[in-house]
Amino acid sequence: MRFVFAILAFVLAALMIAFGIAQRTVFLEPASTSLSATVDDGAPYAVIDGAALGAFPGSQTITVSGSDSVFVAYARTADIQAWIGADEYAAVGLDADTGKLTVTPATGTAVTPAAETEAAPLATDPAGSDLWLEEYTGDRSLTTTISAPEGISVLVASDGTAPAPTDITVAWPTDNATPWAGPLIVGGALIGLLGFVIYLLGLLHFRRSRRPRRNVPRGPRMPRLPRVPRPKTIKASEITGPRRSIGRSMIAVPLVLVSGLVLSGCSPEFWPTAAPEAAATATATPSPSAEDTEAPVADEAPEPAVTVPQLERIVGDIVALTAEADANLDADSLATRFTGPALEQRLANYKVRAADASYAATVALPDSPLTLTLPQQTDAWPRVVMTVLQSADEASVPTMALILKQESPRENYLVEYAVQLEASAKVPSVAPATIGAPLIAPDNKFMSMAPNAVGPAYADILLKGEASPSFPLFEAKGDTARTQLGLEYKEKQLLELEDTGTMEFTNAVGSGEIIALATNDSGSIVAVSVNEITTVTPVAGKATITPKEGPSKALSGIEETTKGIQSTYSEQLLFHVPAANSTDKIVLLGFSQGLINSVELP
Known about the structure:
Helix content is about 30%, strand content about 25%.
């Protein structure tokens, strides 16, 4: 009977092991599911819709080929549609009935900026656009894996002029784990080992049953006889000699089998796992991040202009370009990322440094983390975003606030204001970057002072000091611009001027657009620019004025004049303006000043 049980155990073990191995070989499901589409209409762009990307759960591995150069980028669907504008493209979608990808020729809708700008040729190459959350390029073919949540689409192109790549495949990972393979293999090995033990026990019982049995009745006790030498004992193994090899082989085979199968079953795919508490939600890599999805946004509210990771990439590019342009005095390169007063100050500094290498460069943009991000809450253009770059070494690297503006979808963000923050400045509480802030109109009356009046009012304080009507409205404590540019500084300049000339100070509106973003206290952060004009004229036209070495001489290009010199200084100013019903004063958060022009009077 023992042999019967052993045979049954061997058969069961073989079946379990075979079925466990089959689950990882013959019956193993594919590791991924894929859908393919062919773009053959010659359109310069193809857009994989978010519905197609979400056809199956999990990350998406996108493979694109069929052109000499391949470009792939992912971004919010609305931003991709805005970038394409009125151009033709191939829309790659999902047929809900067949579960296959479809390709449909489509034409986009042009985005008209809120403010009319000079007509300029639109960029056709999508590479390098600030709208993309991430972009990839390759030659002839490209494969990349992303994790795109709802609302994200993928743009595919060559160079924006040649037809888009023709072959597109999207693959999703599938769960091909075989949780019973491990238990079946190991369980089969253990049952086989148990069967072998039963077999040994049966064999031992069989041997014992074949030994001779003696049952002699006891008679009268006989006297002991002398001992006779005992014959040599024959071992049982010697009697059953041919079976020795069978036994050892039977032991070796299960041991090798068990050890090999146990080692092969160590992979997690071989074993049951506990079900997760909640399914994880896919998020785009590297953006939007968790920070971008934790705050609720009202359905009717527009999305913020940028995400934090998106802005980090944009600012990183700007910082690197600015450092190189500053070092090489490269005005053309600088103009690709700067505009308005921020561009004016740096271009003037380049011109001065080209004539006088010892002249100090404009304060560099710190290669530091973004400690504040305040994007405009909008789905239109132009778009505005404010950010603060703060280094851990604040003593040697000043904290800078940047105001960036994007005029249209196919234009990149340009730095319009680059302001060094005051050491004591406390930026007011603002909305999370995931929500953004609305743009305040320049003539808004719900502030303690309309944004378009802040610049002229503060310039009047710098010109007149306490005599200015606006003096009580602005906080004087911590305002270093008053000591560096204010009335006392101007009076000192007048005293240093010789009796042969006179000096006059006037103010004018700067080239920067007035930008105001709402704060949580119903106030706003206001960025304005003011031009301060200094005119030096000789007395009665009889004296000769010689510009001092440095910026004025470099910009004017004159050695001396009997007519006079007019110098224009640009001042970038950043304020916190409280609400109209607040008792707080307007606070200067930061400023940057520099000579931008110097000319001889007519």
